[in-house]
């Protein structure tokens, strides 16, 4: 997960992937950058379609009133032995 954030952090702020539709070559590079090197062309097409849909949905959301505190935090603790 950290690698995906590192890739996103190095993105050009003037031109983000959410601003335009991705190409298959861009998805192939993104997948390779985060270690998804075993994807075949069908997988890459699925990833391309899903990524473009996710970007379109996110772009349609009104986030003008949101702050960092509004973002949910997901915590996974494997140190405790219980399942609750």
Protein model, in words:
This protein is mainly alpha-helical and 84 residues long. It has one domain. It has 3 helices and no strands. Helix 2 crosses helix 3. The longest helix is centred in the middle third of the chain and has 20 residues. It is flat.
**Average predicted local confidence, pLDDT:** 78
Q: Over all CA atoms, what is the radius of gyration?
A: 16 Å
The count of helical stretches stands at 3
Tell me the major beta sheet.
none
User: What's the number of extended β-strand segments?
Assistant: 0
Q: Considering DSSP H and I runs of 4 or more, what fraction of the residues is helical?
A: 40-55%
Q: Alpha-carbon distance between the termini?
A: 25 Å
- Compute the number of structural domains: 1
Note the overall shape.
Answer: flat
Task: Give the low-pLDDT segments.
Answer: 11-15
Order of helices and strands: HHH
Strand content: under 5%
Structural class of the secondary structure composition?
Answer: mainly alpha
Index terms:
84 residues, mainly alpha, 0% strand
Could you outline the blueprint of secondary structure elements for this entry?
Elements: H1 2-9, H2 24-33, H3 41-60
Helix pairs in contact: 2-3
What's a quick, concise take on this entry?
This protein has 84 residues and is mainly α. Helices cover 45% and strands 0% of the residues. It has three helices and no strands.
């Amino acid at each position: 997960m950290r690698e995906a954030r590192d890739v996103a952090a190095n993105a050009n702020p003037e031109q983000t992937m959410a601003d335009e539709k991705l190409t298959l070559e861009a998805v192939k590079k993104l997948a390779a950058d985060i270690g998804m090197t075993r994807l075949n062309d069908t997988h890459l097409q699925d990833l391309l379609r899903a990524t473009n849909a996710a970007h379109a949905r996110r772009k349609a959301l009104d986030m003008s009133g949101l702050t960092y505190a509004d973002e949910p935090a997901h915590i996974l603790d494997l140190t405790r032995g219980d399942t609750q």
